[in-house]
Design a protein that fits this description.
The protein has about 160 residues and is of the alpha/beta class. The chain has a single domain, classed as Rossmann fold (3-Layer(aba) Sandwich), CATH 3.40.50. Helix content is about 35%, strand content about 15%. The protein has six helices and five strands. Helix 4 (about 100-115) runs parallel beside helix 5 (about 125-135). The radius of gyration is 15 Å and the shape is globular.
């Protein structure tokens, strides 16, 4: 680490800060309707446990967000974070046509961040992302406070786009 700034606390959005339960049914049909899934995100209620952890983390860390949401969702995502009173922070989103698994894309971003900053923790609900981050040596808080449907778990494993 070569930076004097505070460490980073990296938060996922869907299933960690945002309760996506009301839109998980959109992933049950084949093909999965990812466009509708992400379009419904502005209606997500906050997950109190995740929001509280982000607010506590902001006391001694810089909070940043790392999501599988595509870039086209940025304006809605920024508005949602502000409406929940979450700390301002950089938002890392996937390119609109990037279909790689989240365990790959998120790990790439974490490694890039760790080149110049201490990454204090990653908070995520995706088991595969958490496993990959732990295997790479990152401290992980597994967000187990949201209900995840079988369709969501399958989609995360098969396509990993959250």
């Amino acid at each position: 680490m070569t930076d004097n700034r505070p460490p980073l606390a990296v938060f996922d959005l869907d299933g960690t800060l945002a309760d996506s339960a009301h839109r998980q049914h959109l992933l049950e049909r084949r093909p999965r309707d990812w466009d509708a899934f992400f379009a419904a995100a502005p209606a997500d209620p906050p997950l109190p446990e995740g929001v509280a952890l982000a607010l506590r983390s902001a006391e001694d860390s810089e909070v940043v967000y790392l999501t599988g949401r595509p870039e086209r969702c940025r304006a809605d995502t920024v508005a949602w974070l502000a409406a929940q009173g979450l700390p301002e922070g950089r938002i890392w989103m996937r390119a609109n046509h990037d279909r790689r698994p989240a365990r790959q894309t998120k790990l790439e971003v974490l490694k890039r961040l760790a080149r110049n900053r201490e990454v204090r923790m990653l908070v995520d609900d995706d088991l595969l992302v958490c496993d990959a981050a732990e295997q790479a040596g990152f401290t992980v808080v597994r967000a187990r406070w949201a209900a995840s449907s079988p369709a969501m778990k399958d989609a995360q494993g098969a396509q990993g786009r959250t």
